[in-house]
Amino acid sequence: MLESVLNWIDQNARLVVELQRLLVQIPALGPESGHQGEEEKAQALKIWMAQNGLPPALEINAPDARVASGQRPSLILRTEGQDNSRSLWILSHLDVVDAGDKTAWDTDPFTLHIDEDQDTLRGRGVEDNHQGIVAGLLLAKALTDLNIRPPFSLGLIMAAEEETGSHFGMEYLTKNHAALFQKDDLFIVPDFGAEDGRIIEIAEKGILWLKIIFTGRATHGSLPHKGINSLSAMATFIVKAQELSAVFKTQDSLFDPPVSTFVPTKVENNVASINILPGRDVVHFDCRLLPSVSIDDALAAFQSIGDEVKAQYGVQIDYEIVQRLDPAPITPRDAPVLLKLERALEQEGIKNPVLQGLGGGTMAAFIRKIGHPALVWSMIYDNPHTANERASIRLIQKTTRILARMLLA
After folding, report:
1. Which pLDDT band, with edges at 50, 70 and 90, does 18 fall under?
2. For residue 361, what pLDDT is reported?
């Protein structure tokens, strides 16, 4: 049974290309980027599944009035096992990030390009996260075509809106449809990894995206004594925020970097002319916090810095939480899903895997928070969000082989 599935996977590279071509040409971008979300991509995948004999997918829609359809769809596909009280879940996401500066691309980011080596695929989303979608569907089609019922069922989730926080995707599913998941289910998120397959993510930092608004009083640039310079206050705040690394100095070697980070990133436009002293400035911080660090403590530390800046400059400072994801439990070393993955890797000749934590957030955190150990693993180049994003047919097939071993061995 296993060998026939592995052979089928090896012989169906064409399906990898076919699916990637379909997915790349439908950029699922959210309303934050001025687009309409995942609806078109989800419907195209449902058509592909029906045409390829797969079971009907369940569509779960999270309401979102910002998009024309009014909903953000996530797709759930289940194939029957001999024991349907347990499933191996493969979690991927439908959305992608914007292509960015298209002049940095060698090809059209939304048209699949195959390199001369006939293995490397290029296009926005081919890795993040089409390779995860394709690996799951490839395994489901192998089981369907070969009429194989594995020892337990295979479940695929192709979720909405992972790139901007998962509020309409995995967070919505775990809060409103947690009954989908059973006590002994196994969870793999193919959204991070390494080309050699040795990196397994078992933990994630907490995430705090913080918007800080400085309100002063605008005036002419030649009359600074009549205004309150919000830009000067913001600049001082940013410099003082560097002290947070010394306040939260705990280290954890599971992560790289092994510390909590507090990074100023986005600054919003303020004035239109050089001769205007600004009265409003906005900066955003991207904070990645070790599991031992409380997000509430980090917020209090930011506000303490703000109190100093307010006293120095006389500005008003307001705080808005753009995203908050408190740290989830770490997947334990003896979790059945980890033991199964390590055994499958060894059977494919991949030895001595490395367990590590991740600074970026994935859908695994939401699964861990409802009490299920989850892993983030795949065989990829690890080049998400870059120009000329690339994936490998060979690595997608190898990833699928290992998932098949977890299900069937």
Report:
1. very high
2. 84
Is 386 strand, coil or helix?
Answer: coil
HSE, side-chain direction, 13 A CA sphere, residue 151: 9
Give 409's strand partners: none
H-run or E-run covering 343 = helix 336-347
- Rounded Cα–Cα distance for residues 160 and 170 (Å): 7
Residues in contact with 304: Cβ distance below 8 Å, sequence separation at least 6, in sequence order: none
Instruction: Report in angstroms the alpha-carbon separations of 259 from 237, 292, 358.
Output: 21, 10, 11
Beta-bridge partner residues of 218: none
Residue 22 host element (H or E): helix 13-24
Question: In whole angstroms, what is the distance from residue 41 CA to residue 372 CA?
Answer: 29
Quote the CA–CA distance of 202 and 331 in Å, as a whole number.
Answer: 5
Under a CB-based contact definition with an 8 Å cutoff, are residues 167 and 161 in contact?
yes
- For tokens 């998120």, what's the residue? 189
Q: For residue 286, how many other CB atoms are within 10 A of its CB?
A: 17
Count the alpha carbons within 13 Å of 259 in the hemisphere toward its beta carbon: 10
Rounded CA gap, 100 and 383, in Å?
14
Spatial neighbors of 247 by CB under 8 A, at least 6 apart, are: 301
Amino acid at site 197: G
- Cα distances (Å, whole numbers) of residue 244 to 241, 249, 287: 6, 8, 10
Q: In the structure encoding, which two tokens stand for residue 124, read together? A: 């926005």
At residue 305's C-alpha, the angle toward residues 302 and 307, to 5°, is 110
Measured torsion, CA atoms of residues 149, 374, 72, 65, in degrees rounded to the nearest 10: 150
Is the omega angle on the peptide bond into residue 84 within 30 degrees of 0, that is, cis?
A: no
Phi, psi of 214 (to 5 degrees): -110, 120
Of 5, 47, 330, 44, the residue nearest 146 (C-alpha) = 5
Token pair 């334990």 in the structure block, residue: 332
Half-sphere exposure of 333 (CA within 13 A, CB side): 4
Per-residue confidence (pLDDT) for residue 400, from 0 to 100: 98
What is the rounded distance in angstroms from the CA atom of residue 184 to the CA atom of residue 409? 17
H-assigned helices in 28-157:
39-51, 131-145
DSSP string, 42-55: HHHHHHHHHHTTPP
pLDDT digits (tens, 9 = 90+) for 315-351: 999 999 999 989 899 999 999 999 999 999 999 999 9
In the numeric block, the tokens 């395994």 are attached to: 139
